């Protein structure tokens, strides 16, 4: 990933995010498509706004948690660490952010490091690279080779 992209993708110890100049519904669709382009399917959708309204009767910004999974990477990880499914799937969130939206991606390397299993490093690095490319795609910076 280019240095320019890294400046625009905000990093945290457990993930990274991108600001999107599109509305929430568009952002969910675009994020799902970007994940699909990198081999991830969305297994679950958790509507946080709806849940908080129903359970706590509070208003919250539109906020969706997408449970993304790349089956081949998940399979490789589970072969190395059978109980790793406690950390799967990869969570990706999309939420309203001012006039636009924000998509945030878990860093698989940070998540899988809790297993202390060196065999997971290559899987985590590949998953991270794929998610970073999905984030770059959302920013319109993805360049096919």
What does this structure look like?
The protein has 145 residues and is of the alpha+beta class. It is 43% helix and 26% strand. It has six helices and six strands. It has a six-stranded antiparallel β-sheet. β5 (90-97) and β6 form a beta hairpin. The chain is globular, with a radius of gyration of 15 Å. Mean pLDDT is 87; it is low at 1-9.
Helix and strand topology:
Elements: H1 3-8, E1 10-12, E2 15-20, H2 24-37, E3 41-47, H3 48-56, E4 63-69, H4 71-80, E5 90-97, E6 100-106, H5 108-112, H6 120-138
Antiparallel strand pairs: 1-2, 2-6, 3-4, 4-5, 5-6
Helix pairs in contact: 2-6, 4-6
What would you say about this model in short?
The chain has about 140 residues and is α+β, with helices and mostly antiparallel strands. Helices cover about 45% and strands about 25% of the residues.
Strand content: 25-35%
Report the uncertain regions.
1-9
Give the CA-CA distance, first to last residue: 13 Å
Largest sheet: 6 strands, antiparallel
Could you tell me the radius of gyration in angstroms? Answer: 15 Å
How many helices does DSSP assign? 6
Category from helices, strands and their pairing: alpha+beta
**Mean pLDDT across residues:** 87
Strand order of the largest sheet: 1-2-6-5-4-3
Total strand segments: 6
Percent helix, as a range, is 40-55%
SSE string, helices as H and strands as E: HEEHEHEHEEHH
Identify the overall geometry. Answer: globular
Features:
single chain, alpha+beta, 6-stranded antiparallel β-sheet, 6 helices
